[in-house]
Amino acid sequence: MSEEDLDPGERLREELDELHERLAALSGRVADLERDRDTLYAQAETQADLMRRAEVRIRRARLALRKMAEAAAPSPQGESPAADPS
């Protein structure tokens, strides 16, 4: 049966069915994209947490190095701290 043989109501029903199918496909795609977005946000949050922890470790390491450098520095009298008899 050609499109010309269909009555206007039947033609509208077919178009509506096609639009519903397209809408269902698009809705599925949107749901997939939303899941992907949520996954990416979770990964970004995890990475941010790892970066914060790494920054804390770096600050602690710098502080420890600074303290070791100060301890190894010569005293104002020109002697090394290891040679200090006190």
Mind explaining what this structure looks like?
By secondary structure, the chain is mainly alpha-helical. The chain is built from one helix and no strands. It has one helix spanning 8-72. It starts with 7 loop residues before the first helix and ends in a 14-residue tail after the last helix. The relative contact order is 0.04.
Quaternary state reads single chain
Global Rg: 36 Å
Terminal Cα span: 109 Å
Q: What's the pLDDT, averaged over the residues?
A: 89
Reported for the largest beta sheet, the result is: none
Would you identify the regions where 5 or more consecutive residues have pLDDT less than 50? Answer: none
Helix fraction bin = over 70%
Count of DSSP H/I helices = 1
Tell me the fraction of residues in β-strands, as a range: under 5%
- Mass-distribution shape: rod-shaped
SS content category: mainly alpha
Reading the helices and strands in chain order gives H
Based on DSSP secondary structure assignment, what is the total number of beta strands? 0
